[in-house]
What does this fold into?
Amino acid sequence: MKQSGKIWMFFGAMFAIASVLSVFLYVGIAKSNAFTKEEKQKGLSVLLIGEDDVAGNTDTLLLLWFNPREKAIQVLQIPRDIYIKRGETEGKINGIYPEYIEKYGKKEGAERLTQDISALLGISVDRYLAFQSDGAADFIDAIGGVEVDVPFSMQYSDEAQGLSIDIPKGKQMLSGEQVLGFWRYRQGYTEGDIGRLDMQMLFLSSMAKKCKEPLNFKECLTIYQKIAPKVLTNLQEKDIISFVTAYIKGKDTFSFSAMRLVGEACTGADGKSYYVLNRSANEQMLNAHFASLKYGEFDAKKQFFNEKNKAFWHIYEDKNTSYRVYALEEMEKISVKRKG
It folds into this structure.
């Protein structure tokens, strides 16, 4: 597929992108002639790649699958701290993309990361959408903000990262700047970065409601002009136009669910905290919920496995671990565990 370079209305906050892209792509696949017959049958998978502002690591990795046959949209969270072994080196999965960018540039870097994720999960990932987080505020402000019921006061400051978060508890309309803070905040969660992912599920449910509000073509064009320079994708512009046209004409009924690669937090020999994946639970989840995309075995080369670390090994090999599927209404009620 050709690289169109820049498209329109997707922004840095991954779950806002998930919500908007979900609606547009689902309707587009069902009604548009822009996709092949095969894509209409199996649906379309898109890897969302979000860079952080400082180190360029993937602060966001999210797989979206639009399944027209089942009238379903499924979101798979790929935690940033996942342990991965690559050749003689090991580290976190969020460090792969900046390495590729340095060696090959952004376009080929995004392509290679997408191929890696596809091979690691054993499922077909068709396209990618890479974005910079500074597009988030522009997008949220362009759509008039998003109402979120913030479960607790969020306060944090980091001058090195240019980050200042001050969001009170309670239901409120968040601006673009506040949304950036909401999705990046990661202080005091009992389960570390998993708490941050739970919070982002809360935001996803709010954004899904926002997406049900009507949009006209002029509003879509305005968003396009603001966001286009900050997005890299192999989705084609004609595809996006088809999505928008179909969306304006009327939405179809669809189900929405979210999942997360299954694992546990664990400390490595280097003293760093990793998210170690469980082989059997993830294989079961992908077989059950991404069956049309499956072409191989989950972690066929055992890159998520560290045979030298007993704690890692027990998590990876545990046969009793289970996965969870969140329906949209469950995301609204998700309880985020916090210290104190």
Q: What stands out?
A: Residues 1-32 have pLDDT under 50 and may be disordered. The two ends are 51 Å apart (CA to CA).
